[in-house]
Amino acid sequence: MNDYVADLDSALAESGEDIILRRFVGTTNPVNIDVEVRANVRRVKGPDELVNGIGQDDLRIIISPKQISCVQWPGGGIDAAAPFDVDRSLPRRGDRVIVKGFMYRVETVNPIAVLGGVVRIEMFTKGGASGG
After folding, report:
1. Domains contained in the chain, number
2. Which of 3, 19, 112, 114 lies at 20 to 30 Å from 28 by C-alpha?
3. What is the largest CA-CA distance in the chain?
4. Does residue 83 lie within any of the structural domains?
5. For residue 72, what are the CA distances in angstroms to 90, 91, 124?
6. In a domain, 82, yes or no
7. 52 in any annotated domain
8. How confident is the model over 48-95, as pLDDT tens digits?
């Protein structure tokens, strides 16, 4: 399992880009919990025109679980109990990513596991409104 993560980390270091993964915590005074990670970012659809030449892209983003695990992102709290067994360290719908200065909303997360351990995290996002 460690070989899969090491291979992904090596590939991302060589040809990935830096992005910020962000989670909003709290309701009254929300706080941003950010972590910078290396990622493989690809446009899968877009830009959909929203209005007057402003577009919105859909991205597919692949990250390693190692970088978020090393900094214990997002910190605090405890994982949910069975039967849901939610791992708080995995990105989730509603989290944000910042890519090249544009913010995207995480829509789906697909953690890829081998022998019970997550070796890769795929996310699909919407957003990043930009002029076209």
Report:
1. 1
2. 19
3. 49
4. no
5. 10, 12, 22
6. no
7. yes
8. 655 565 667 789 999 999 989 888 887 766 555 555 556 778 899 999
Report residue 15 CA to chain centroid gap.
17
List, for residues 104-114, the tens digit of each pLDDT value: 999 999 999 99
The range of the structural domain enclosing residue 48 comes to 2-76+88-131
Give yes or no for a contact between 107 and 97, defined as CB atoms under 8 angstroms apart. no
Separation of CA 31 from chain center: 17
pLDDT of residue 131: 40
Distance CA 64, CA 46 (A): 25
DSSP E strands, the chain: 17-25, 31-51, 54-63, 96-99, 102-114, 117-131
Please state, in angstroms and rounded to a whole number, the distance separating the CA atoms of residues 116 and 87: 13
List Cβ neighbours of 14 (8 Å cut-off, separation of 6 or more): none
Instruction: Give the CATH number of the domain where residue 114 resides.
Output: 2.40.30
Looking at residue 98, its amino acid is: I
Q: Quick one: tokens of 114?
A: 């081998």
pLDDT tens figures, 16-29: 999 999 998 888 88
